[in-house]
């Protein structure tokens, strides 16, 4: 039995969009040269690249939900050029430079699409802050500075006074600013890219695939009202890769949660006193991510949960507790805005691996996958999806060689119930250790 996405319907980014046009669903028997499963950052990039490389091919891109309803439309709106914090600690500087180059290639690709198609998604090259509240956070910042020096990347320290001027709160003690991050409205970006796919890509939404089998040299994807047959399948389904029998004991489903306010009024904006359109990630990775959007909304993101049943693992009681935690974090930072309500609280599920390794490559004959972005999906999904298409058609590029060198096999997980107990204990410990930074 394939477990499908079970996302809440309260994602602020998605609800802020205008209503989508009616979906085209999978019906009847369809044949394609390539099928791409999952219409997030990876799947959209893979389908677009396949269409460029094979303009006469028929490419079918299929998703169980509407575009932008899933994980790609639920992140905090950062497109980060720097490797993940754990990857930054890799001992080989060449490895880290390859990751950096791949992320920047993704950013350039996304920017090109935004500009070419006029996608209205608050795309902006404003960099990001990495903020610390107390001594624990400062220690992480000092370590981050060391990693930046080793990488040879630009950064600068930001003191409390300057942070307060930008953020509108004196809650943070210090930060390090790095200039290469872009901010965006993720649901708007993903939907915009889907609306401008090449002509030889057909997008099928609200079309869950219930089974996958190989028959007569073709991969057959069975849906509720039809099937797709294709010799080549590209999986851009992230954590749901394991639902089709691949990497089954190697991916961990984790959900992180966010809440945001309605747009601030002019009076509230004056009381806030900071700038618009910035993003701050925590120096301590278990801390709080903070955004002020270009359209005046304050976003709080923290709280991590192990979700073996994806959205079905989240109860209303859990959601209420998370919302209360977000409210406390908001009031700690902006007590003068106590009357400003949250309008949406949502979660998004992603895949991590115990050894923080991304999977990229061929799973078996004719099946390719990019899975396990370890929580940095916008840039990584874009470049890995693009290069997965290169691999599927037999192209040979330096970027493809690079991504194969910096990816590998996620490590095996212990069996349940030990896995679940261990992950939950680790999350609780991280929250307790990071309590001063929340």
UniProtKB/TrEMBL annotation:
Residues 33-391 form the FAD dependent oxidoreductase domain. Coiled coil: none annotated. InterPro entries: FAD-dep_OxRdtase, FAD/NAD-bd_sf. Signal peptide: none annotated. Keywords: Oxidoreductase. The keyword Secreted does not apply. One of its GO terms (molecular function) is oxidoreductase activity. GO terms for cellular component: cytoplasm. It comes from the Bacteria. PANTHER family: FAD DEPENDENT OXIDOREDUCTASE DOMAIN-CONTAINING PROTEIN, SARCOSINE DEHYDROGENASE-RELATED. This is FAD-binding oxidoreductase.
